[in-house]
């Protein structure tokens, strides 16, 4: 898993550098979650009955694109067309760009309502598909998230599994300084969700949490670090915005390679 | 119109299990015999959720209808309609009741006189404003078959039936034919002012149930002298404005001034107050023709 995640991180840096686009910190913080999802959990072989993954924090799109490429679901050429003039992939996801990109997203707070509708449709047809959502922690400040959070348990959507990439950095500050969502786990428990809280960079913990059985919709709070894998990016707000120029890329790649070789 | 459309929806739902209705805590007396169905959900008061949830079901193959009072359909969750439904090209049907100033006594939050303006900013959203229950049902049937998202604005219930024969809602429909060279184009519930208009002036009157249909207005209007539009909507940004953009003919627009309504009263009182009642419009038409 670590090797896969490393290749994904390298490709995030690669396309971030080609594009000189923002959001590399957000992409790196959820890489381990996406790696686990796509290589341990999501059942995608039967397309019509596939599990659904919604990247609601769609500004982390580079992570999804790199993961889809690693999975063989997105070509290198398409991945490298990210954010380019006349290119193939936008900065926030667009469902018309690839059959495994489920929704067009980017404005926060949309993914969970849509996922709730998808999960209910799956429930009505009595299918075994699951719907997975990855949200940002700042995203939980959106009212629409709580509208969906109220409905999901009422509909007994135990096929709905939501993760929050809790890196405690949002657009212009730390979540716990701006508008704290904590105790986020107790909030979702009060809404009658099954709530787990894990280290969002521990593959085993991620996998176990995703596989944890419950009759309720499930919320997994993943404690993460923005910019994970590159020490000068870790937990730094500026890497929500700063671009990966050639110098940054080469320094970052050294870090990622070193981390892979650590025991 | 409301109950006619609902009855048509229930009829289709009995044959099409993919049809699904979302009510945003609205619909007493409309959905009472349907609200226990697995094809219905009342989610409560959460407009953004309603659109997103509908989009999710639509992505999974359902034909979804969202029903609520019009400001809570197109105005409050506008961004969700734009991003989740229209940008994603989902064939969801949005039904907004209380169009225009139908619910004016309830105040500014419960009427819409700018909904066509909002809807028209979404390029692939078809907009329907039927004038009677027959038009309303035909608009719904069109939307049901359509692969595009649809917004149907209807007044309430109990409107007089105007059409007694088959109609095509994608074309203008004559309600009153005249030898006059002048024509009045209207949509929605303001149609019930036409009898008063005709006591003042005789001219052709047509209803346009589908505001976004691809119709050759230049050819249709070529032989008319004066062309008027009338709507229970802001005068700027409504169908009159759309028509001006669609054709070269000079259009004389009648509607509500683009100002917030602070006057308290019901629909008929406010139509007279703001001079969009039949008598006022008839007189304005005569002035324009003679001017």
What does this structure look like?
The complex is a heterodimer of chains A (263) and B (291). By secondary structure, chain A is of the alpha/beta class. Chain A has helices at residues 2-19, 24-29, 31-41, 61-70, 76-80, 111-124, 143-154, 175-178, 184-190, 203-211, 246-261, and strands at residues 52-55, 131-136, 160-166, 194-199, 218-223. A 5-stranded parallel β-sheet of chain A has the order 1-2-3-5-4, with helices on both faces. In chain A, helix 10 (203-211) links the parallel strand 4 (194-199) and strand 5 (218-223). The model of chain A has no long low-confidence stretch (mean pLDDT 95). Chain B is α/β, with parallel strands linked by helices. Chain B contains 11 helices and 11 strands. A 6-stranded parallel β-sheet of chain B has the order 2-1-3-4-6-5, sandwiched between helices. Classes of the chains: A alpha/beta (263), B alpha/beta (291). The A-B interface holds A 95, 102-107, 109-110, 112-122, 124, 143-144, 147-148, 150-151 and B 38, 41, 43-44, 46, 48-49, 51-62, 79-80, 83-84, 87-88.
Which residue ranges of chain A are poorly predicted, with pLDDT under 50 across at least 5 consecutive positions? none
Q: How far apart lie the N and C ends of chain A?
A: 14 Å
The percent range for helix content of chain A is 40-55%
Structure classification of chain A: alpha/beta
Largest beta sheet of chain A, briefly?
Answer: 5 strands, parallel
Order of helical and strand elements of chain B: HEEHEHHEHEHEEEHEHEHEHH
The largest β sheet of chain B comes out as: 6 strands, parallel
Shape of chain B: globular
Calculate the mean pLDDT score of chain A and round it.
95
Note the quaternary state here.
heterodimer
Q: Beta-strand level of the residues of chain A, as a percent range?
A: 5-15%
Shape of chain A: globular
Beta-strand fraction estimate of chain B = 15-25%
Compute the separation of the termini of chain B in Å.
Answer: 38 Å
Computed over alpha carbons, the radius of gyration of chain B is 19 Å
Radius of gyration of chain A, CA atoms, in whole angstroms: 17 Å
- Percent of residues in helices of chain B comes to 25-40%
The structural class of chain B is alpha/beta
Q: Look at the structure and give the mean pLDDT of chain B.
A: 96
